[in-house]
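Structure tokens please, single chain.
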Amino acid sequence: MSTSPLEGSPISIAFIVRDPLPPIRADVLTLFGTEMPRYGVATELVGQGGTPGPAAPWPAGGMHVVGSLKSRFASICSPIWDLLGLLRALRGARRPDCIQVRDKIASGVLGRVAAAVLGVPFIYWMSFPIVEGFEVRRDEIGRRAGAKAKLQWAGHALRAWASRIAIYRIVLPGARHVFVQSDAMAHWLAAKGHARARLTAVPMGVDAALFDRAHIAPVDDARLDGRRVVLYLGRIAQARRSDFLLDVAALLRARMPDVLLVIAGDAPSDDEMAWMRTAIAERGLGEHVLLTGWLPQRTALGYAVRAEVGLSPIPRGRLYDVSSPTKLVEYLALGIPSVANDIPDQQLVVEQSGAGLCVPMQAEAFADATLRLLGDRDLAAAFAVRGPAYVLANRTYDILGRNVAEVYTSILGERP
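Here you go.
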């Protein structure tokens, strides 16, 4: 499946992505679909399908979908599918100015080879430490007992070992430039021996128009009426320790009986969602936690603007310490005073914006900070004013897009 290319663009990128197509993540959809074309940068997206609903045309160039992430063979077939998609993308009359791969390992090797064959730069985009994620999964399985677990461990150990060699000895050393998720990730890779000058941090941002509070209608839900609403906007997962939110809710309930924690988000699987519902019931929090499940974005934002405080707990560790969470920036853009824990990017945002409180990821600390904001209306009002101003000056995709476009023009030696 392909969409027609954008014509006359000074720069063209063949871009292999890990996320399902059509893209829904803002750092692909907004950054490359909306912002990059303003600077004359077009993209030919290559990847697998998996997003619900009909495929929309890609406004920034072409989209080449081969295979599906819902296939049980996706992890094995993805590099082959990406090769076929890349060949489709290369059918145009014009050779791409570079090949870029995002968060894929085998396809990262493929991208480096293809770039060498075409004589164009190879660029890698790392939004998550995939290899370290494989190693965490390997270690989790290693703690299980039984022959089946040992066999699974061996498979995951092999994948982690091969992936480490591929990324750190082949893909990254062969990249003209590497875009990373945060300054913390850039420093982490630099400590591994990668030249800091070849690393550019592109933290998560927001679409300023979409997150303009003045244009968001509060949701009409009687369950929120008369309650002190606290919000978590995002995905639920055991790996993210989402039940931590329930520990915070239990402490809030004991000191403020009219509090309601709204968890506006879905889980990656039905099992994870069932786990969260069970945890709510076991703690007796049915009257104090509203788990919405998946919502259209405008509806989720309608819940958000009815909240007095936003929560952003992200587990510390080698996987998340280098991340750049979106939810804190979204809260600030909406003028929601926030409580976040001390992973580097969140701590940086809180310190620079002066629009939230940063505490360790401990239930008591989160509850105390939340109650402070609920009880001090002057402090909360000051935070609510500072948040949008900070985001508009630092973390909107028009600002991030300009920075990324400048890097492309520098790398490719061509100014749109």
